[in-house]
Amino acid sequence: HYFIQSNLSMSSLKILVAGGVDGNFKQLCSRVNSVNAKSGPFHLLLVPGKVMGSDAGTWLSLRDGTYTLDVPTCILGATEEQHSQYFEHIPDGHVTENVTYLGRRGVYTTTSGLSIAYLSGVFGGGISNKPHCYTESDLNILQAQSGVLNGVDILITSEWPADICKYVKKPEGSVPDGIRHLSHLANSMKPRYHFTSGPYFERLPYRNHKILKEKSQYCTRFISLDSVGNKGKKKWLYAFNIIPMKHLSDEELKKQPAESTENPYQEVEKEDQRKEDEKQQHFYSVPGEKRKMTGAPESEKKRDSSCWFCLKSPNVEKHLVISVGTTMYLALAKGALTNDHVMIVPTNHIKCQQFLEDAQQEDVEKFKKALRTMNRTTKKSTTVFFERSLATSHMQIQCLPVARYSVSDIKDVFYTFAEKYNLEIQEIPGDEDWKDAVPPGADYFLAELENEDKILFICSQKIRFPLQFGREVLASEELLNMPRRVSWKECKVSKEQEEHDVKVFRKAFAQFDPFNVDDSDSDSD
User: Which residue, 488, 494, 142, is CA-closest to 334?
Assistant: First the structure.
């Protein structure tokens, strides 16, 4: 996106947004260039809607320069399968002069600090191989990328979120049902502006906090623009000024408009969280007053052969394994934050530490003690462990060394991010059993620090827990300073690089390995 960086200034930015083009590039270019000549210069034109029409020739006319835009323009990808081919193999997103294809999904921050989150295509469910569809994985990655930014200035999507018309009068005519996953995304990302395409609808701003119950936040403005040149002459081009949030004081950013509503996504969040809680309770509930949970539920044991983490499964990536204990093994993390980011994993199918037997927990503690000793001795670092039982079926305790920081410093960062997401976390002293604080069958997030103090969050239907919370804290500027590596899928490397990293770590860990029966320095698998 080279042209954007050279054009934006540090002051208020003038932005244009257009609705779906549907191949009508001639009218788009004519109108935008006219507005820019009269009221510009504008810094950006964003096009969140459908770009291609039934006649591919208009797209080719744009690319060959027949139609030109005087304003740097960002477009999203295909919304129909037959148009996907035109967005393949576009080097660096360069469509033509002044036109950039942003890509599948991501967060782009200009040199002026304007943050733009984007998501191309239509929702294709949990898994989709269709290039014009985005998936739940895309949503999770986008949410993780934006998480470190404490909000974004602008979000552009091709589809509407569900329930956006709640608390306000609906626009005339038919209104899209919307996508529930986009409601979650918008609620999590908290954009100042959310633009999409469809019937024209400029919603009243909505609050991103509950009055008198939550810390004050800035408001979000949702705006949907009609298609270019639509017959009803509904608004399809929108102009506004914006100062990037990073250049605003807290008071300026959070100033509340006179007419603002409650967050329209609250009921979507509550309903989906209730369904998730019921699902989790069905699989992992513990009857009666039984405090100690042993083994995995029978339904989970049957999944050993297909699980990616069960050591006897044909799907496990054994080249990542560093050391194997009696009931646990140590492995390099897939999509690791650093090359010494490892995981403690049960050899058999166990959901989380709540289900561990005494012997299994002892093996966990042996690995943790060895890692602490190695990191203190060879890296002069403290060690942070964290585990999330929510949305996972096989226990993984993430382990990372963090250099030059005290336990209190690391705690402070956890509390900062907990406040960001309105999470009520508990601090458990190292000599107390954290499991006593977790209700039977409940999901949780647990972090353990160098002195064995724990930070605990109990998941509930009241607050939606950010799945990348642990990585987000560790990757923050305050600790590892690698905020763009929050999503593990964005950190994947080649198998050859993984094998190299495992070989290096295994050699360094050998003298500390509690299960090492070979005193040699062999690096063989």
Answer: 488
Contact 220, 190 (CB under 8 A): yes
Question: Which residue type occupies 447?
Answer: A
pLDDT tens column, 246-284? 899 999 999 999 899 999 998 887 776 665 555 444 444
Residues 76/154, Cβ–Cβ less than 8 Å: no
- Six-digit token pair at 250? 């807290």
Tell me if 109 sits within 8 A of 145, measured CB to CB.
Answer: no
Stated pTM of the model = 0.59
* Residue 352 identity: C
Confidence of residue 126 (pLDDT cuts 50, 70, 90): low
Place of tokens 């966990």: 364
Helix (H, G, I), strand (E, B) or coil at 131: coil
For 167-191, how does the pLDDT look when each residue is reduced to its tens digit (9 = 90+)?
A: 999 998 899 999 999 999 999 889 9
The CA distance from 62 to 64, in Å, is 6
Residue 75 has which token pair?
Answer: 């477009």
Distance from C-alpha of 290 to C-alpha of 297, rounded to nearest angstrom: 15
Confidence of residue 89 (pLDDT cuts 50, 70, 90): confident
**pLDDT digit string, tens, across residues 315-347:** 888 889 998 887 899 999 999 999 999 999 998
- DSSP for 303-325 reads TTTT-SS-TTSTTS-GGGEEEE-
Task: Concatenate the DSSP letters of all residues of 420-450 into one string.
Answer: HTT---EEE-TTS-GGGGS-TT--EEEEE-T
Buried b (16+ CB within 10 A) or exposed e, 265-303: bbebbeebbeebbeebeeebebeeeeeebeebbeebeee
Coil, strand or helix at 47 = strand
